[in-house]
Every structure is written in C-alpha cells, then in structure tokens.
Design brief:
Distance between the termini: 28 Å
C-alpha cells in the first residue's frame, strides 16, 4: 500500500553538512501547516481513488518543532481525505533537544507511533563540528525519555566518516548506540555538499574531509558491530533487529507509489515523479491564495524507470531482480552485458543467485560506482 510523506521545512539552526530544504525562521510555520492541510485536500486523488495509507512519515527539516495541536490538525486532514490502514506506521523525525518530558507526553497522545531521532554522535566535538542543537549527554537522554514515554519503535541516526585521529570515537558511538537497545539504526557517511557550511569551509581550505580509506574502515566497523549485536543490514545505510525495518523507506526502495506534500517534497505515482517548489513563501502563496500546488512533473522514460530500479534495489539486502528488470522494465543486463556481471562476481563484489544480483560487503563500498557502471552498460534505447 502507498505512503504519505510530509515535509516540515523548519529547523532551529542549520547543521553544517545539511543541504535539505529548510528555514531557520518559524514565522511561516502556522501558515505552512494550513497549506499542508490544503494540499492534502488538493492531492487526495494523486494516487488514485480509495487509497489506503500504510505509512505516514513526517520528515524535514525538524518535524519535532510541530506542536501537538498542529499535528492533530494535520492528522484530521489526512483522515478526511484518506483511509489509514489499521497498524499503519506513523513516523516523526525528531531532534534530541526537542524531546523533553512534556513534549514526549504530548507526542504519545497523538497518532505518531515511531520516532526517528537524529542523534548523529555521542561525542561533543563532533556535534559542534556538525552545528547540532543538542549536546552529547542529550543524545542518550532523549532516547531514554522516549522509551519511558512509551515509544518502543525507535530509530536513531548516526554519522561516520567525521575527521578524527583514529576510529575510537566511532567505536564509542556504536557502543553507546547499542547500549540504548533501539530496534533500528540509520548510519550515514558524512557527505560534504558544496552549498553547506562544511562545503564552503572545504572550499576555503579550513576543513578537510577524511580520505576514502578512513571512511571505508569505519563502514567495515559498522557492518561488523551491527552483525555482532543482532542487527541486519537491509539497506546500505539502514540496520534493524529482525522484523523492524522502516516500512515507509522500504517502500521507496521497492518502487511503491507515494504522495509527498510540503515544499521540496517528491511524489511518485508509479510512472512519473513530481517535485514541489523548494521555497516556503512561494509554496504557501500558491496553495492558500491560488489553490494550486507549485510542482514540476518529470515524465519518466522506460530507461529512467529501469535505472531507478537498479539504483534503489542494489542498495538493499533483497538485491536487484534481473528477471523483473528484463521482463517488466525492458532492460536485459544479463543478456547484453554478461562480462561486466561476471567481473562483479569474480571480484567478490556481488553474487547472482536465481537471477537476483546482490552486492557483497566489499561491493557495498563501491555501490555508487557499480550502479554508475550498470547505467552505462545498459543499452542506450532501454
């Protein structure tokens, strides 16, 4: 069943690595909530009639900046225009500094049943480098408060590949994470984007990202420690205890249609993508004053859909179904380029079993490069 994504584009401060769409001014927050409610009404038929939502995901930005009353207004709009499946996964991204005792009590009274908490690190100098709004003690304390408030379905975010003299800080971050006993962990390599504080510092020569070899060692440490503590890697950056995958994100990787509302949100109807303008005032004015969604539609070709399937499925433990790629999407990689696939298996970067191509641990380190090579290997007319 499809899902609903809501982009909440507000943050207390700008993290030094983040290039997502957000604003540090909350002046438009109440108007933007009104616009979200209106957009939900305007786009209730985007996924077709009689849609039943299996997942709802509040992303951002910092959705934990929403008040309980604002969340209730949004939930009321969702239920007016969609059916929501019993047991639907309803996730809200949160920053540790927002998760006070009273805030968690309010959240527990809403329909939210899963929190994704952006810890990033338990090491104070790394949090300061990332310009996070919370402190290292708050990282663990926020998770424990959430657990005490009844939130058992928790995910935490960690960032590795942060410059350091060795790997002991990352090892300590992992140990601290495991001590919390959360069922889901998302771990991402620090990526330096040009239009971020770290990107600008790197351009000026005042910041240097660690070498690829350093990041690779930390990724290998991540894989080993996750396995040792009973977490399965179901996607390159996502780990969970058995049966605790993120249903919402899993649907993205499987190509399930979804509706995204809010500025900068993406939607997918099974054939084409839609991108809403990444500008809060323009979004609010268009939706509330003109009754229209300021979005661009991208018509996906057969080649686009095949490439997207490759890109997303190769990142997962399920792998890329070469038969589906051939029969449903018209791209016969195995028939047209057996030599490259043979190279992947011979180098120990991938396995092919029952026509499913799956990356090994060594291959996951090269996932972007392998995907690009597969794109280039595909016939031009696919």
């Amino acid at each position: 069943m499809p899902g609903l994504y809501l982009h909440i584009p507000f943050c207390k401060q700008a993290c030094s690595y983040c290039d997502f769409h957000f604003s540090t001014s909350l002046a438009l927050k109440s108007r933007l909530v009104d616009a979200l409610v209106q957009e939900i009404a305007l786009r209730q038929n985007y996924l077709g009639p009689h849609v039943v939502l299996d997942t709802i995901y509040f992303g951002g930005g910092t959705p934990s900046l929403l008040t309980a009353s604002e969340l209730e207004v949004i939930f009321a709009a969702i239920h007016r225009h969609f059916a929501v499946a019993p047991g639907a996964e309803i996730t809200l991204e949160a920053n540790p500094d927002d998760l006070t005792g009273p805030k968690l009590t309010e959240l527990a009274a809403t329909a939210v049943n899963r929190l994704s908490i952006g810890l990033q690190s338990f090491y104070e100098p790394h949090l300061r480098l990332m310009n996070r709004a919370h402190t290292a003690p708050e990282s663990a304390a926020a998770v424990r408060r959430a657990q005490d408030a009844g939130f058992e379905n928790l995910s935490i975010d960690l960032i590795y590949g942060v410059p350091a003299p060795g790997h002991h800080i990352w090892e300590a971050d992992l140990a601290n994470a495991f001590a919390l006993g959360v069922p889901h962990v998302s771990a991402y390599a620090l990526t330096i984007e040009p239009d971020t504080l770290l990107g600008r510092r790197q351009g000026k020569g005042t910041f240097a990202a660690p070498p690829d070899e350093f990041v690779a060692v930390q990724f290998e440490l991540l894989l080993a420690q996750m396995r040792a503590h009973g977490y399965g890697q179901y996607e390159i950056s996502n780990f969970c205890r058995p049966g605790r995958e993120s249903r919402h994100n899993g649907n993205y990787w499987r190509g399930v249609p979804y509706l995204g509302v809010g500025p900068s949100a993406h939607s997918f109807d099974g054939q084409n993508r839609q991108f809403t303008v990444a500008n809060n005032p323009q979004y609010v004015a268009a939706v509330l004053e003109r009754g229209e969604v300021p979005a661009t539609v991208e018509e996906l070709t057969a080649r686009d859909r095949a490439n997207e399937y490759l890109l997303t499925t190769l990142r997962t433990a399920r792998g890329c179904d070469l038969a589906h790629l051939r029969d449903a999407l018209g791209l016969d990689l195995a028939g047209a380029h057996p030599a490259y696939l043979a190279t992947l298996t011979a180098q120990g970067w991938a396995t092919i079993q029952q026509e499913v191509l799956t990356l090994t641990d060594a291959g996951k380190l090269l996932a972007d490069q392998i995907t690009l090579e597969l794109f280039q290997a595909a016939p031009a007319g696919a």
